[in-house]
Design goal:
The chain is an alpha/beta fold. It is built from eight helices and ten strands.
Length: about 260
């Protein structure tokens, strides 16, 4: 069985992905190479349709691949596993279950007491204490996403993949959720990989930002983000933002206005 370099919890090598659409081969990902260390927070940005979500689902094991290699926790990815959780843009909570039962969904391998403790710990972790017996329809969008994150973490995965999890939230709730996910990542030391269309979000959250080209998606650049650059009102933040926009739009002749970027 293939083994990854012990320094890397995720390793993607020469990954290519095609889908068949109307009997035509559609190239989605081209020669993706990416190494992620344990405890990193990686954000991925790129144009719609460039394969960002497909890459995330391949790492999770939800989408198969034939060309290249994907290593997760030292083993080749052949399907989903309990050590890798995933949170989607829509929370996907089961509407007929209470929040505590949604968070505990999939924990049947634990005793009743262990399950109750695990569920409560994760509900507390995401700040939903007091809403254990509520139903998803009784929660706001931000609270529902908190519950989805709690469910994603309840199996104690060392990797959490997030596919545009805050995309449907209003601006203020989104900023609050960004703070929360950073707090959780720091406390749990979970390796996180997030796809986002929000450039500000990518900078604030990511230790490194993976910038992808339009389809077929290729990695154009990986930008390391300093702690200073993660502060929204800093010059370093504006410089990183400008660099990302230049990579995203260099294929077109559109001129990037400095005022728009900052």
């Amino acid at each position: 069985m293939a083994e990854a370099n012990e320094d890397y919890i995720i390793k993607v090598e020469h990954l290519n992905k095609h889908f068949k659409v109307d009997k035509e081969e559609l190239e989605v990902l081209r020669d993706i190479n990416l190494e992620i260390k344990e405890g990193e927070f990686i954000t991925i940005v790129g144009h719609s349709g460039c394969g960002k979500s497909t890459l995330l689902k391949i790492i999770c094991g939800l989408v198969s691949y034939e060309d290249g290699e994907v290593i997760r926790n030292g083993h080749k990815v052949v399907g989903p596993g309990p050590n890798c959780g995933m949170v989607f843009q829509d929370h996907r909570l089961l509407p007929w279950l209470k929040i505590k039962d949604n968070v505990g969904f999939g924990l049947d391998h634990l005793t009743k007491e262990e399950k109750a403790i695990t569920v409560q710990n994760h509900i507390d972790l995401v700040g939903l204490h007091g809403f254990e017996n509520s139903y998803p329809s009784q929660l706001s969008g931000g609270m529902s996403q908190r519950a989805a994150i709690a469910r994603g973490l309840a199996n104690n995965p060392n990797i959490l993949l997030l596919d545009e999890p805050f995309g449907a939230l209003d601006a203020l709730t989104r900023i609050q959720m960004q703070k929360e996910i950073l707090r959780i990542q720091k406390e749990q030391k979970t390796t996180m990989v997030m796809v986002t269309h929000d450039i500000d979000e990518a900078i604030v959250l990511g230790n490194r930002i993976v910038v992808m080209s339009a389809r077929p998606g290729e990695i154009k650049e990986i930008i390391k983000v300093s702690s200073a650059a993660r502060k929204r009102n800093s010059i370093d933040f504006s410089q990183v933002k400008k660099k990302i926009y230049e990579y995203l739009f260099e294929e077109s002749e559109q001129e990037i206005e400095t005022d728009y970027i900052i």
